[in-house]
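FYI - complex with nicotinamide-adenine-dinucleotide, inputs then prediction.
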Amino acid sequence: MAKIAFIGLGNMGGPMAANLAKAQHHVTAFDLSDAAVAAAVEKGAHKAASAAEAVKGAEIVVTMLPAGKHVREVYEKDVLPNVSKGALLIDCSTIDVDSARHVAGLAAKAGLEMVDGPVSGGVGGATAGTLTFMVGGPDAAFAKARPILEKMGKNIVHAGGSGNGQVAKICNNMILGVSMIAVSEAFMLAKRLGLDAQKMFDVVSTSSGSCWSLINYCPVPGPVPASPANRDYQAGFTAAMMLKDLMLAQQAANAAGASTPLGAEAAQLFSLFVNSGQAAKDFSGIVKMLDGK
Ligand code: NAD
């Protein structure tokens, strides 16, 4: 049993903290939202009055926060000044590569081990404990983090040094954003040309155009019963989250001098979709915008 401080108990952090408590770890939880803390306490965590209080005496700190600015602030103001020597820091938020490397650098300066471990798998994966973790950080820190991450996820991949977890995450989601648009465009073209959606699915799913966006998350109702298209695009993964990740990819591409024209176009299209009032819808709902609706 480890003493774990968990900061950020939202849609993802809440169930992740619950899985750590379920695995008999002593979880001390903090969030700016009292309701989120209360929900975590109900699932076996212990309440802390502040992030600083949560990390005092903790052997492991896990954070699951919205964006880079929150991560920088929480680590600079609360975690690093108050955490015990020898504690391992694990940030699971999806944030910009620069912030991840900046915070890891501050931790290293303070003599603390840290990994970035963003996730894929959504709220369903967080609840079921089947997330994929993409981990960036030194070998020794990864080895220490792995048994903790295994209580929250199924696939734990060491992606390399600090920040590489974030690199893997934004590259993956750039592929996802682009491929969802490509699949959506193809279905709308097929419809206009008189090809039935199920026939289109039957052909493409066993042909060279097949991909995850088609097979697991088909953007039109019918062929994949579990996809959000069958429940009016109620979110699994919101359009706002997809836009956030595409913007992070563009920011990183600009900084690194990488050419990502399709990533840039996908970011523009998702920006249009989000700004048309669809931020909370599932990202696959972009098919309706591409259909002119
Ligand atoms: P969320 O908004 O539901 O939760 C974030 C929580 O952080 C909130 O409860 C908020 O009150 C808390 N918070 C913010 N600032 C804080 C501070 N200074 N101190 C303490 N708590 C603070 O977001 P989420 O859906 O849980 O996502 C968290 C991270 O995981 C994001 O970076 C997101 O991109 C990433 N992610 C989300 C999903 C998903 O499907 N929701 C999937 C993969 C990755």
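The first strand starts at residue 3 and ends at 7. The beta strands are 3-7, 26-30, 46-47, 60-63, 88-91, 113-116, 119-120, 131-136, 153-160.
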